[in-house]
């Protein structure tokens, strides 16, 4: 799934190389770490400025499985993924929790938003700390940012890919502790849209009334 495993399942690369002592000073080493972090923060600032967006997604799992659907995002803290048939899954973040619904099994699982990678990506202002940024590089018209922080992502490593010219988010890959990747590609994205209140509503009353649900 998307963000949930921690909340579903962001390709692990080596850390940004630092100059050794022969480069002459500790300041050089600090500058090397700060440079990619600054570049990543610039893109994060642009992504933060996008308060609402919607579009389609295609997800590729570690076993070759594929699933697609539509997504809706509103800052701060709100997100929805509706999977196309035959999948009956949906993922809703309402600003407090992330709920994963399985229509076939009639179950819902809950994750506190603050304990998932979504808490960072759905923040009103995304703040990427130096220790979080593993790598920043350019490739085929994309700016690739690799993030890793146990306090936020656990053992997962998250790779975000942005258009180098527009800074639009194109896709992300989550690599779990076993090195297995789940990739999500976005398309037909529209920004500046308005959503009704029901889009990000988790049906708590209905869920709690169902004996098959878990939290």
Characterise this structure:
The chain has 215 residues and is of the alpha+beta class. It has a domain at 50-194: Lipoprotein localisation LolA/LolB/LppX (outer membrane lipoprotein receptor (LolB), chain A, Clam), CATH 2.50.20. It has helices spanning 26-49, 118-121, 150-153, 204-208; strands at residues 52-60, 66-74, 78-83, 89-94, 97-102, 107-112, 133-139, 142-147, 157-163, 169-175, 181-191. The protein has an eleven-stranded antiparallel β-sheet, covered by helices on one side. The radius of gyration is 18 Å and the shape is globular. The protein starts with 25 loop residues before the first helix and ends in a 7-residue tail after the last helix. Mean pLDDT is 82; it is low at 4-33.
Which H/E pattern describes the elements? Answer: HEEEEEEHEEHEEEH
The CATH architecture assignment of the domain at 50-194 turns out to be Clam
Strand runs, count: 11
CATH topology term of the domain at 50-194: outer membrane lipoprotein receptor (LolB), chain A
Task: Walk me through the topology.
Elements: H1 26-49, E1 52-60, E2 66-74, E3 78-83, E4 89-94, E5 97-102, E6 107-112, H2 118-121, E7 133-139, E8 142-147, H3 150-153, E9 157-163, E10 169-175, E11 181-191, H4 204-208
Antiparallel strand pairs: 1-2, 1-11, 2-3, 3-4, 4-5, 5-6, 7-8, 8-9, 9-10, 10-11
Short synopsis of the structure:
With 215 residues, the protein is α+β, with helices and mostly antiparallel strands. 17% of the residues lie in helices and 37% in strands.
Distinctive features:
215 residues; alpha+beta; outer membrane lipoprotein receptor (LolB), chain A; eleven-stranded antiparallel β-sheet; 4 helices; 11 strands; 37% strand; globular
